[in-house]
Amino acid sequence: MREASATRFVRATTRGVDRVLSPAALVEYEGSFEPRETVELEDGTRVIAGASGLEMGLLFEELENGYRYEQEGEAGPFERMETTITYEPENEGTRVRMVSSVTLGLFPRRLTDRIAAWKREAELERTLDAIEDTLA
User: Fold this and answer.
1) pLDDT tens, 17-32?
2) Nearest to 117 by CA among 133, 135, 127, 103
3) Can you tell me whether residue 92 is helix, strand or coil?
4) In which element (H, E) is residue 63 found?
5) SS3 71
6) What is the pLDDT of residues 105-124, one digit of tens each?
């Protein structure tokens, strides 16, 4: 597995950041898939997301200051993908951090996982752009 990460300072309170985050919003903010269905589970939320004939489930766990989510099974673009988004107050705004671990499960893993992490980093940056735009 390879790690991708992104961080951004936004000029908003943590309460403001919290208001614009939800499992479906995070899928939409990433920009690769559209949220099609949201199901509340006993221990979290499942978002069914799709694009171009591909559909996958993402399982979300709410944290005190963000979310942790992962691709459900192997029915998505990755063999495994897990992501954490957290936020905390900083100066007169909020620092938002995203960290994601991914693997395509294809050989040569060293190359394919590097490509997967590169793609994932772009999705994380798009997410932070969308959060910042939504808060503006």
Assistant:
1) 999 999 999 999 999 9
2) 103
3) coil
4) strand 54-63
5) strand
6) 888 988 999 999 999 999 99
Q: The CATH number of 2-135 is which of 3.30.530.20, 3.20.20.140, 3.40.50.10170, 2.60.40.2470? A: 3.30.530.20
27, amino acid identity = V
pTM higher than 0.85? yes
Ordered strands of the 2-10 beta sheet = 2-10, 93-103, 80-90, 66-71, 54-63, 44-51, 34-41
CA separation, residue 41 to residues 8, 92, 131 (Å): 30, 35, 25
Pairing of strands 54-63, 2-10: unpaired
- 89 — phi, psi (to 5°)? -65, 145
